[in-house]
Write a structure and sequence with these properties.
The chain is about 55% helix and about 10% strand. It has helices spanning about 15-25, 40-55, 65-70, 80-90, 105-120, 135, 150-155, 170-200, 210-215, 220-235, 235-250, 260-275, 275-280, 290-300; strands at about 10, 30-35, 60, 70-75, 100, 125-130, 140-145, 165. α2 (about 40-55) links the parallel β2 (about 30-35) and β3 (about 60). α4 (about 80-90) packs parallel to α5 and α11 (about 235-250) runs antiparallel to α12.
Amino acid sequence: MISQNPKIGFIGFGEVTYHVSKGLKESGIKHMAAYARAISDPVRAKILRAKAQSIGIELAASLEELVTSSELIISAVWGTAALKVAKQAANFITPGKIFADLNNTAPSVKKEGAKVINAKGAKFVDIGLFASPAQMGHKALIYASGDGAEEFKAVMARYGANVEVIAGEAGKATTIKTLVNIYFKGIQALCLELAVSAQKAGIPLKNLESLLIQPVATLPQRKRLAFWIIRGIAHAERKIAELQDIIDAMKEWGIEPIMIEAARKRLNQIAQYKLSEHYKRELSPEDYQALIDTIGKLDRKGSQNPPN
């Protein structure tokens, strides 16, 4: 069990660590430290020390020093290094401590990291970060899962952290973030494709803004996703034809329609399932979960015929 005002150690000292530790310090956490490999570089070490001093946290000389002197260890490195860092930290961690991994990586990496940390008698927290600490500091929304999630929330909430515990093993919080990122990263790429196309077509983006939110502007938030899902299923064949017209126009403008081609491919797959014919009635937003379940079964079977 870690203390109510725990000694916190951050592995990595980038943007996330800076803003989260700054907020925690201002909210009352007394002892914090960070370790970054760059500490071994004289030039970069000078910059890191000045940065750490500006928010009142210490810099550890080694990973071993950081882990052994901290009750709560928070890993904030590149996702590609997350598991390696967890394994290295496991060499020095002891029972009763908590290792929290907030890196953007695959759910399977979090599960493997949990096994390594748990084997040493310490607890693991899988963190999914859903807002930018650069804007919200340590109060950015956090989803947490794993055997250390409840204790992590109990301590961090005392200092204003916004933590929601997701029941289940490590990997659950990151799974949710991965699913959300399908939407947000897709939207980012789609917005870029839209902006480039608009520029090529000679249409200012300001002429499009109000039109892009209009279809769901008056719907309750919980029904917006259902709206798009049902529209995509019920009118898949018509939308495929419409998308082809858009694809042809984009090619005329000299734009490669990467995102729109992907949308056409997805709707073409849905159209082959003929779900509207199977239900033999007009689809409504209330049907969306049952339809998604059916599509999932068909995708696994590679079938084109809906189950009875």
